[in-house]
Amino acid sequence: MNSSELQNAPHIGTLPGGPLGTIADVQGVTVGHCTLDAGAVQTGVTVIRPHDGDPFLAKVPAAASVINGFGKSIGLVQVEELGTLETPIALTNTFGVSAVAQAQIRAAIRANPRIGREWSTVNPLVFECNDGYLNDIQALAVTAQHFDDAYAAASANVASGSVGAGRGMSCFDMKGGIGNASRVVGVANRSYTVGALVLANFGRLTMLTVDGTPLGRMLAERAAKAAKVAKAASSATLAMKAEQGSIIMIVATDAPLDARQLKRLSLRAAAGLARTGSVYGHGSGDIALAFSTAYTVPHGADFITLPPLLADERLDPLFRACADSVEQAILDTLWSAVSVTGRDAHQRLSLRDCVPDLAQLLERTR
């Protein structure tokens, strides 16, 4: 592993990634960020658009899996019941959920004034993680304008790291945030793409595992040595600290799946999360949502014409791609993030700043 390879996380698995290496490798998916970086306010909003049309009029099939439910999201109940998305997916901090949900509702009404009158109401979909260590979350800094700005910024050029909703997040006691990845698989003589975007805000240092290497334990032991503290005592103390925080995992695919199959796909995100060392701690909100861009569901239609759906027996390659993409996206978060100082001088160092010799350290384990 040479110095240039430090720029990217190790490639997980043997499946190839897409050309962009982001969730936008799934045709039509775009992402926008609005980042708030002002002293004690270190937060933001991230918006994922499943296609460039109106998601209320052209809904996409979707489903979610709640792996550990310590979260304050909005919209999951209706997704579970109806199996569709009808707004873009929004990510923000815990106390910003209501402001972003109202912004989604207002945007949908602007586009479709009959919503809530002649038509049904709209189901806003907002996910959150608690960035209160770095961000002054009590400032309630996120507003509707920040959702609008993130929505307007959506493109296929997707940034990772300390951006958007990820600005104030922590991961394995280091800087966390937004991560991206994709995988391409062959199924039934056709090629399909699975992309993942994560909002990573979880884990303790000693848990961190990188492509099977217990990097977190290695770093904890190194820190203990540097501080001239007994290695075993230091590691034991770190290991006893409870895992807190959350992760939101958004999985997109162009494979033709229905909501039931997407539920099964979303659950495989947990496999990728576990490989990085998470045990889905008591205080963690670990939620995965999967959607397909293979077709849309017209609003108010009497009948819906579906494309031929993949048989369940052909889903294993997609399950593998989901797990690999989520694991890769979490590592992308760590590799892409920059160090941030926020409220009360709290600081999270990036993996790069914590481990300047990261490439050499990983190479020695191979």
UniProtKB/TrEMBL annotation:
CDD domains: DmpA (cd02253). Gene3D superfamilies: L-amino peptidase D-ALA esterase/amidase. Belongs to the peptidase S58 family. SUPFAM superfamilies: DmpA/ArgJ-like. Pfam families: Peptidase_S58. It comes from the Bacteria. One of its GO terms (molecular function) is aminopeptidase activity. This is Peptidase S58 DmpA.
